[in-house]
Amino acid sequence: MNYFIITGASKGLGEGLAMELLQEDHHLLCISRTESEQLKKMAAAKNVSLDFFLYDLSDTQGIPDLIEKIFKKIDREQAKGVYLVNNAGLIRPVNRVEDCPPKEVDKHMRVNLLAPMLLTSGFIKHLQDWKVEKRILNISSGAAKNPYYGWSCYCTGKAGLDMFGLCVSEEQKNEEHPVKTMAVAPGIIDTGMQSTIRSTSARDFIHRDKFVSFKETGQLVSPALAGKKLAHLLLSDKFTDGEITDIRDDY
Ligand SMILES: NC(=O)c1ccc[n+]([C@@H]2O[C@H](COP(=O)([O-])OP(=O)(O)OC[C@H]3O[C@@H](n4cnc5c(N)ncnc54)[C@H](OP(=O)(O)O)[C@@H]3O)[C@@H](O)[C@H]2O)c1
User: Fold this and answer.
1) d(Cα 12, Cα 10) in Å, to the nearest integer?
2) What is the fold, at CATH topology level, of the domain defined by 2-187+222-250?
3) Taking Cα atoms as reference points, which of 225, 221, 229 lies closest to residue 247?
4) Given the residues 55, 83, 154, 251, the one annotated as active site
């Protein structure tokens, strides 16, 4: 059995990925504040085990207990592989730095950076002496490498997540059964996050019109297609520990 812990599988890219992972001998363990009825129905129709853990990832203090609960669902005897996909994320606040409300900055960094760090820590701890395939896929963005006016939180969180993954790889690479970590920028996908970007004011995000035109000219990829590519990468030999890549380049 392969177990997949996926954050943000209730909508957007995470839902697209989870749908693609609804395969025989897979068990999906999904973390988000809301559920996807469609995903639950599809899992039931395909007879694939799927659990939703309703949780607000900005509550970082509770993450060790959450991981504990999730691992109670994982049967060590049955497990061939355990996978963690740090996908949940938000774009707000979109503003110049001095105009970002401190509470929103705090929440952003908790969800986009601290939660993946703590989930990773719990994942590694629980799997320490398990002789199984262990993989973490961090969902990155072009914003990890390129600064954008108005996206200081988002760019910083994604850059931090990329670097965090590299540090984890350094710590794990000489282990007998290492946790392999890879980060992938998934392209521009037609999700709620993109509609939030288009709804910001051009004053707060000076590139807004470019993102409006991506939508108008049909350049956004569907969550289903992006999810299919990510699932393929996650399960394939192309999954490379310590690599940061862009799904549009190779996959
Ligand atoms: N869309 C793009 O073009 C694009 C491009 C590059 C990278 N990405 C990255 O792809 C990932 C997915 O984004 P998306 O576009 O699919 O966004 P989305 O449609 O807005 O979905 C975000 C997901 O994250 C979950 N989430 C948000 N806040 C949460 C919280 N406090 N606690 C728990 N779960 C939370 C949401 O679940 P609930 O609302 O149910 O909690 C939802 O499932 C993000 O990491 C994003 O940065 C997206």
Assistant:
1) 7
2) Rossmann fold (3.40.50)
3) 229
4) 154
154 is a catalytic site residue: yes
169 lines ligand 1 (CB under 6 A): no
Where do the domains of the chain lie? 2-187+222-250
Q: Which ligand 1 atom minimizes the distance to the CA of 194?
A: 1
36 in ligand 1 pocket by Cβ < 6 Å?
Answer: no
230 CB under 6 A from ligand 1?
no
Quick check: 59 and 104 in contact, CB under 8 A?
no
In short, whether 188's Cβ falls inside 6 Å of ligand 1 is yes
pTM of the model: 0.98
Of 137, 154, 227, the residue nearest 191 (C-alpha) = 227
Whether the CB-CB separation of 172 and 182 falls below 8 Å is answered with no
Reported as a single tens digit per residue, the pLDDT across 23-79 is: 999 999 999 999 999 999 999 999 999 999 999 999 999 999 999 999 999 999 999
Indicate whether 204 pLDDT > 70: yes
Say how many Å lie between the CA of residue 196 and the centre of ligand 1.
11
